[in-house]
Amino acid sequence: MPISFTLENVDTKTSARTGVLHTTRGDVKTPVFMPVGTCASVKTVSPHELKELGAQIILSNTYHLYLRPGHQLIKEAGTLHDFMSWDRPILTDSGGFQVFSLADLRKINDDGVSFRSHIDGSTHYFTPELVMEIEEALGADIAMAFDECPPWPAEYEQVLDAVERTTRWANRCLEAHHHPRQALFGIVQGGTIRELRHKSATELVAMDFPGYGIGGLSVGEPKPLMYEALDYTVPLLPEHKPRYLMGVGSPDCLIEGVARGVDMFDCVLPTRIARNGTVMVPEGKLVIRNAEYARDFRPIDENCGCYACRNFSRAYIRHLLKANEVLGIRLTTIHNLYYLTHLMDDVRQAIIDGSFSEFRKDFWSRWKGAE
Question: What pTM was estimated for this model as a whole?
Fold first, then answer.
């Protein structure tokens, strides 16, 4: 097996758990947040800095790397790890979410999806078999199956069609996937419809994937609906395999996802808001670009150990952002990624110590919300 998962601790009051994902490029302690390196780079941050801030595993995007620079070019370099000089684990998504978010630029049928590139308008056609070819060429440690992600809200029949197509495509991905050092995860769909989540999970679990993504959430539905969907979806997944909630990265959602038994998360949120001058703190967020911080010589967070907080003030980082100096968004990005990475470290330790419920309560006592 290219990967395995060891379940270590389960909280007695919630479904929170700790484990270790064993890969050929090292172990990943869970629960874990994965920074997103869409185009083989986590925006503004070097691989060395990612290691320094504690990133164990990163995610890259099949759709974007297929379009530019092309999976065959990356294969010539060896693997995506070689290409971007990252020797820790990588997960590649299937590109399904990106393709289906191109609503006006794509057409779907049972064989695959035709779409127009957002870069140059050229036409392409993704099938499960091609997606497996691309992901195998990229050589990530974990590849995700090609799925259909329905929008929210959507009619029952539309979500049912997406679930059935996702199941058929998952079978085709299994048949086409042959990389001996790469694990293939299935993706459970079903929107916020309990019956369809059950159908999708049951069909995919029967295929015996080594891990499972939970897709189709954090696509516009209210957070209480997402939590409700996790409440009835996560228990359907195998206890001794990793569970990955796709596209979720707000601290409150991480805490609530962990409480419901999720092991892995990813999202562009921390890097995206960093580029807009917004930083994460235990209370929620600070828009560091705002004038109120012009003479604030405290660090972003006095209890944070990241490079930005150890060395620079809010006033200085605001100055950089206002002056359009690249260092400004590098510092806000480093801080946000450090914050989420170490939030997961603290969550993991709380579960081990048997104090996760108290940790969760303390988190909510300070939390005032974030974008």
Answer: 0.97
165: closest CA among 140, 143, 145, 185? Answer: 145
Residue pLDDT, tens place only, 133-157: 999 999 999 999 999 999 999 999 9
Beta carbons within 8 Å of 319's beta carbon, 6+ residues apart: 294, 328
136 closest CA partner among 179, 106, 170, 176:
179
Q: What is the CB-side half-sphere exposure of residue 88 using CA atoms within 13 A?
A: 18
Residue 208, helix vs strand vs coil: coil
The answer, yes or no, to whether residue 290 has pLDDT greater than 50, is: yes
For the annotated catalytic residues, the residue numbers are 93, 266
Which one-letter DSSP state was computed for residue 145? P
Residues forming beta bridges with residue 29, ordered by sequence position: 20
Question: Cα-flanking dihedrals φ and ψ of residue 193, to 5°?
Answer: -110, 110
Q: Which phi and psi (to 5°) does residue 144 adopt?
A: -100, 140
What tokens does 228 get? 């409700």
6-26 pLDDT, tens digit per residue, is 999 999 999 999 999 999 999
pLDDT for position 370: 53
* Other beta carbons within 10 Å of 238: 15
Q: What is the DSSP string of 271-338?
A: HHHHHTTEEEETTEEEETTSGGGTT--S-S-TT--SHHHHH--HHHHHHHHHTT-HHHHHHHHHHHHH
Return the structure tokens found at 42: 């986590």
Cβ-contact 163, 216 below 8 angstroms: no
- Residue 42: other Cβ atoms inside 10 A: 26
Whole-number Cα distances in Å, 55 to 2, 47, 88, 121, 346: 21, 9, 9, 35, 14
Output DSSP code: residue 250.
-
